[in-house]
Amino acid sequence: MSENNETNRLAIKTERYIAGAQLPAKSRPRDACYDLRAAHDAVIPPGRVVAVSTGLKIEVPDGYCLDIRPRSGLALNHSITVLNSPGTVDSTYRGEVKVILANISPLMRYDVKAGDKIAQCKLTREIAISFEEVEHVRDNDERGGHGFGSSGR
């Protein structure tokens, strides 16, 4: 499949709410997500949660939402994750985008510096759905109602 990325690009209106804030950007052209960066220094003590400012207000278009996701390198190397992953920025929200970072390390604090990549975001198209109440949902496959861990290790 071939696409001209310039003609198929959706422009997202973004305000630098804090001077020096950096617009979301991809690290590599074919990456699926855009990096979000910290607007200020922050300290995340061991076992604590901090809302880190991006310094941006993002006007998500109607019919879409912006998912905020953890960065794998922060998770693996520093025990830092997005607590409410994925975080959701709805099209009706117009405030500053902050990222809820959790330090799951029991011992080491994590220092965020202004400009550090703290999360990634991806625009997701919403699909209109309705929930239809039924007497019983279909339960005729192998898994059935078996939940957590049902597929083994």
Could you walk me through the main structural features you see in this protein, from its secondary elements to its overall organization?
The chain has one helix at 72-78, and strands at residues 13-16, 34-37, 42-44, 49-59, 64-69, 80-82, 87-90, 96-103, 110-112, 117-125. The chain is built from one helix and ten strands. Helices cover 5% and strands 36% of the residues. It has one domain (13-125): Deoxyuridine triphosphatase (dUTPase) (Deoxyuridine 5'-Triphosphate Nucleotidohydrolase, Chain A, Distorted Sandwich), CATH 2.70.40. With 153 residues, it is mainly beta. It is globular, with a radius of gyration of 19 Å.
What is shown here, in short?
The chain has one domain (13-125): Distorted Sandwich (Deoxyuridine 5'-Triphosphate Nucleotidohydrolase, Chain A), CATH 2.70.40.10. Helix content is 5%, strand content 36%. It has one helix at 72-78, and strands spanning 13-16, 34-37, 42-44, 49-59, 64-69, 80-82, 87-90, 96-103, 110-112, 117-125.
